[in-house]
């Protein structure tokens, strides 16, 4: 596994700032970008105690497939799980939640 194969390797600092920022409404209307890919926010519970997850979906550009992405928030880290084409977002949410919960309990 190499990072060069991953579409989200080129995260920009402003993209992370948007994900963890205080404005939780803006990206529902205008979307957001991750690794310079446009995405739609499906569900945002990143700052809901006991949940700490966000579900997004990439937007198709030039007919390419779209992918579900789930983000889990630990104390000091974000966990991003991106599914292959056709993978349901609920499966990813569960994975990112459990990994973020593990990190949170481990002090991260």
TrEMBL record:
Transmembrane segments: none
GO cellular component: cytoplasm; cytoskeleton
SUPFAM superfamilies found in the cross-reference section: Profilin (actin-binding protein)
Location within or outside the cell: Cytoplasm, Cytoskeleton
Primary residence: cytoplasm
One matching Pfam family: Profilin
GO biological process: actin cytoskeleton organization; positive regulation of actin filament bundle assembly; regulation of actin filament polymerization
Superkingdom of this protein's organism: Eukaryota
Keywords for the protein's UniProt record, in alphabetical order: Actin-binding, Cytoplasm, Cytoskeleton
GO molecular function: actin binding
Family in the record: Belongs to the profilin family.
Function: Binds to actin and affects the structure of the cytoskeleton. At high concentrations, profilin prevents the polymerization of actin, whereas it enhances it at low concentrations. By binding to PIP2, it inhibits the formation of IP3 and DG.
Name by which UniProt lists this protein: Profilin
